[in-house]
Amino acid sequence: MNYNIFGTLVLEQNPKYVDELEVKYNIQLPPIFKAFVQTFEFGKINPSPQHLIIHPNQDIAFDGFQITLEKYISSYLEQGDYYLVPKVLPFAISGFMSGICVGLSGDNTDKVLINFGKIENTFEVIAPNILQFIAELKEIHWDTV
Questions:
Q1: Start-to-end Cα distance in the chain
Q2: Of 15, 34, 48, 135, which is most buried with the most CB atoms under 10 A?
Q3: In the chain, how many H helices and how many E strands?
Q4: How many domains does the chain have?
């Protein structure tokens, strides 16, 4: 039986927190992603211990959103130019890959991208936005794997 990861979402108690982070770090989040992180508490979107989150693309590992939005933003700013071409913000861990990211500018704004472990800095679009990305995820019980 498949479970829906949306069942694990916790409502954000302080939506203005996101605006404060944008000012503090001088960053502008794309509109759909920003609405998502203003609605749901970002560091608490994780599977239960008995479940695994899977994506239809078997090459994509997903362990939930394990750290806060602020930690992702500060880490992004410390990485230098790695996430600048294209300009993307990592927001989830994906195995040994560079992480699952959201596009911050241009044609990639709000798109969800990933670098499939390539040496060069080439990101591929895996969803048109964060909501579609999460809608594609399934939470399954470990016993069914």
A1: 11
A2: 34
A3: 4, 7
A4: 1
Q: Which two tokens stand for residue 67?
A: 């750290």
Domain assignment of residue 32, given as a range: 2-142
Residue 134 dihedral angles phi and psi, to the nearest 5°: -70, -35
Is 96 a residue whose pLDDT tops 70? no
2 contacts: CB under 8 Å, gap ≥ 6:
138, 139, 140
pLDDT in tens, 4-36: 565 667 777 788 999 999 999 999 999 999 999
Q: In Å, what is the CA distance from 62 to each residue of 1, 25, 71, 81, 108?
A: 19, 26, 18, 24, 21
Q: Find the CATH number of the domain harbouring 123.
A: 3.40.1580.20
Give all strands (DSSP E) within 1-145, no chain letters. 2-3, 51-54, 88-92, 100-103, 112-114, 124-127, 138-141
Neighbours of 6 (CB within 10 A): 13
